[in-house]
Write a structure and sequence with these properties.
The complex is a heterodimer of chains A (109) and B (111).
Chain A (H helix, E strand, L loop, with lengths): L2 E5 L2 E5 L4 E8 L5 E7 L6 E6 L5 E4 L2 E5 L3 E6 L8 E8 L5 E3 L3 E6 L1
Chain B lengths: L3 E4 L2 E4 L5 E7 L5 E8 L3 E10 L2 E4 L7 E2 L9 E3 L8 E8 L6 E2 L3 E5 L1
Parallel strand pairs in B: 2-11
Antiparallel strand pairs in B: 1-3, 3-8, 4-5, 4-9, 5-6, 7-8, 9-10, 9-11
The chains are: A mainly beta (109), B mainly beta (111).
Chain lengths: 109, 111
């Protein structure tokens, strides 16, 4: 069965303290792995898509990487405005999507 | 403006009273999907549609129906809502195997 596990569940960082979020997955025929950011009461906002192992993508302070079993979202020198829940999702060959439970990130000034 | 719209945004109803939540997108996307989000469980896919007249079950389809008669619309139907369907619902759309754009959400309470 397809599965997505994110860790940690919650992460508290000081402003400027870099860290990484993990997304482990098992899926039958990976079509794509997605990272989203979600603010309270709002719909998820797209960050990155990764399609194959070894792929990396960057956007401002965020960098996403992908292996055959997991993906990492690296946050470099975070700011308080980076506080949000970060969601990982995989899309399988048949088109169905599976989301992880998310990592709730808090960045203190 | 490219967007996914959902209506209503908030709904309080009673057990057994049929309801429909509408979803519309203006991006000519083939793929549309419905999710529910519950504390501690994350987003779970209810149904998805790869194109017009094509729908498939996600992880939690029981108690829900969908239809895709037009490319832009993908309504979610609860024929006989129950309290365990109280949740925050999101509609999303995308091109095939691309990033999804999410609507603003519908908060449903079933008493």
């Amino acid at each position: 069965e397809d599965q997505v596990t994110q860790s940690p569940e919650a992460l508290r960082l000081q402003e400027g303290e870099s860290s990484s979020l993990n997304c482990s997955y098992t899926v039958s025929g990976l079509r794509g792995l997605f990272w989203y950011r979600q603010d309270p009461g709002k719909g998820p906002e797209f960050l990155f898509t990764l399609y194959s192992a070894g792929e990396e993508k960057e956007k401002e302070r965020l960098k996403a990487t992908l292996t055959k079993k997991e993906s990492f979202l690296h946050i470099t020198a975070p700011k308080p405005e980076d506080s949000a829940t970060y969601l990982c999702a995989v899309q399988a060959a048949m088109g169905d999507m599976r989301f992880g439970a998310g990592t709730r990130l808090t960045v203190k000034p | 403006e490219a967007q996914v719209t959902q209506n209503p945004r908030y709904l309080i109803t009673v057990t057994g009273k049929k309801l429909t939540v509408t979803c519309s997108q203006n991006m000519n996307h083939e793929y549309m999907s419905w999710y529910r989000q519950d504390p501690g469980l994350g987003l779970r896919q209810i149904y998805y549609s790869m194109n017009v007249e094509v729908t498939d079950k996600g992880d939690v389809p029981e108690g829900y129906k969908v239809s895709r008669k037009e490319k832009r619309n993908f309504p979610l139907i609860l024929e006989s809502p129950s309290p365990n369907q109280t949740s925050l619902y999101f509609c999303a759309s995308s091109g095939q195997y691309n990033e999804q754009f999410f609507g603003p959400g519908t908060r449903l309470t079933v008493l």
